[in-house]
Amino acid sequence: MILKLGLDFLAAIAFYTCLPIPKLNLDFQRVARLVPLVGLIVGGILGLLDLGLFLLGVPILTRSAVVVVSWMAMTGGLHLDGAMDTADGLAVQDPQRRLQVMADSVTGAFGAMVAIAILLLKISALTDLDTYRPLILMAACGWGRWGQQVAIAWYPYLKPTGKGAFHKAAIRSYWDLLPGLLLLLGLSGVQILLDRDRIVASLAMALGGSAISIMTGAWLNYKLGGHTGDTYGAIVEWTEALFLCLLTAF
User: Fold this and answer.
1) Does residue 115 contact residue 86 with C-beta atoms inside 8 Å?
2) Which long-range contacts (CB under 8 A, 24 or more apart) does 130-135 make?
3) Which residues of 119-141 are buried (b: 16+ CB within 10 A; e: fewer)?
4) Which residues contact residue 211 at a Cβ distance below 8 angstroms, ignoring those fewer than 6 apart?
5) Which residue in 88, 101, 179, 195 has its CB near the most CB atoms, within 10 A?
């Protein structure tokens, strides 16, 4: 059981990131169950990078830009590509052609604009967040991927095949959402342990993160009548960006 879980974890790291892992015969069918944990690891690595740049005296705007570029590089642009394809699809007036446009590998004008908007929002919001940045980065990456799990569990998958199809098969019950939710709520609690004056910010992380991740998936379902692998990526990117923007108020 432990060996199987370990292999599933390595498979999730290999599928969702560009991080180096041992060359093994991995099964990707269950990776969706572990995606919030992958998010916490990605956020933790980004937090360490940010801390290292801080110790080197790098200004906060430059640190934020380096972190966001590294964020994109660590995931191979997987989720950002999905957000771009989703934007191109939603720009089409004919609902019957949206999936066809989203499947096209050519990036359109709306996809490019959305990519620029997401990156600008992340960099500007991170620049305004000058404390507890490693925790915030972990929370942003975690909630984005938990929102993906919610969409997988709650809404229909619009294609008979594709990478998103085995995600749908992996999340069989709402109970599969609970481990990731508990991890993320626990992360918000860590902030209170570190500083009792951060209760409001901690609640904003928990309530805001869960609300944004759920509502993003719900809005895309409303527009498309379901989800695809591209919209799963869009949920991750928009939840991360909007979550960071929300926290600037606290």
Assistant:
1) no
2) 130/60, 132/191, 132/194, 132/198, 132/201, 133/47, 133/50, 133/51, 134/43, 134/44, 134/46, 134/47, 134/48, 134/50, 134/51, 135/47, 135/187, 135/190, 135/191
3) bebbbbbbbebeebbbbbbbbbb
4) none
5) 88
Q: Dig out the tokens for 8 from the structure.
A: 């599933």
Q: How far apart are CA 81 and CA 94, in angstroms?
A: 22
Place of tokens 């909007």: 242
- pLDDT tens digits for range 104-149: 777 888 899 999 999 999 999 999 999 899 999 999 999 999 999 9
The pTM of the full predicted model, rounded to 2 decimals, is 0.92
Higher pLDDT, 171 or 23: 171
Check the CA dihedral 75-118-215-165 and report its sign: negative
Q: Which residues, listed in sequence order, are joined to residue 157 by a DSSP beta bridge?
A: 227
Confidence of residue 167 (pLDDT cuts 50, 70, 90): confident
pLDDT digits (tens, 9 = 90+) for 49-95: 999 999 999 999 999 999 999 999 999 999 999 999 999 988 888 77
d(Cα 158, Cα 137) in Å, to the nearest integer? 31
171: three-class secondary structure by DSSP: coil
The confidence score (pLDDT) of residue 198 equals: 78
Cβ-contact 78, 233 below 8 angstroms? yes
